[in-house]
Amino acid sequence: MGVIPAPIRRFLVAIACAIAVTPISTSQPAPELWREVEIIRTAHGVPHVRAANLRAAGYALGWLQCEDYGGVTPERLWATLGQTARVHGRPAVEADFLALRERARAIETYHLLEPQTRDLYDGFAAGVNRYVALHPDEFAPHIPSNFTGYDVAALHIGNAPPAGRIRRVLQHLNLVEGDPVTVHDGLPRDPEEGSNAWAFAPSRTRSGNAILLRNPHLAWTAGYYEAHVTVPGVLDFYGDFRIGGPLGVVGGFNRHLGWATTNSNTGDRTEIYALPADPEQPDHYRIDGASIPLTKVTRTVEYLEGEAMLTETRDVWSTPLGPVIHR
Residues 104-120: pLDDT tens digits? Predict the structure, then answer.
């Protein structure tokens, strides 16, 4: 990535390359979902879920993750509301502004999700809500019991680059004050770092069956949640989810296939685009010969300062490619 010539005014836009998942309707799940699901645990505590439908399956996963890992899942859902600075103070303001932007995208695109995905999200929120409502003493006072599918969708909408990474990129381009740094902080990278997966064809195995071996190079405490979820005629999956959501599937198998994921050893999932500003129209940029207006949204975050609750308001600019990070 080269230095942008000073005379050329450009907008820098960041795109986070991540899976964007969105839910569909936040209609309240049926209050008797627990009647539509059966959970049996093995001697090691692994839950086997058999549900009548995907909404009930989501309900079971939400309940189970709260039962097994306490506040981890509700805290993640609460963070999507953009309200963490109300409790944690000014250091959480940047995270809340980011959460509000991602939440807005989750809500705007919620209708694009398939009904099955919406059912799973709505059910998951209902399971968390039910557990929190019945066990309020297990959670911090700020944890609500009225989460919706929107909140679950916001978990999966995709992470934009954090403020620290953006600042390092701008320093690298000499666009902000500070010593120039490499995008990766100058830390040495081990070329062997990462994770692996191997697939063996039936012709290569003694049993004559295909074999998939995964080695994700993550700690046992990295957030895996082992479970078997069955919805007759719809879903039969055994593997590991991610604690905090219903669709963070890392790897597993069904009756027909298995799959695995590997981890990036760079964490570089962001693209930065330089868009030329339109010199004739304020707050416009030019692309393919056309002048396109930037989109402005005004957002406000509340934060705790001592015993007082203060607010910070910002105008946030964006393009269809992503948020504007420098002008």
Answer: 999 999 999 999 999 99
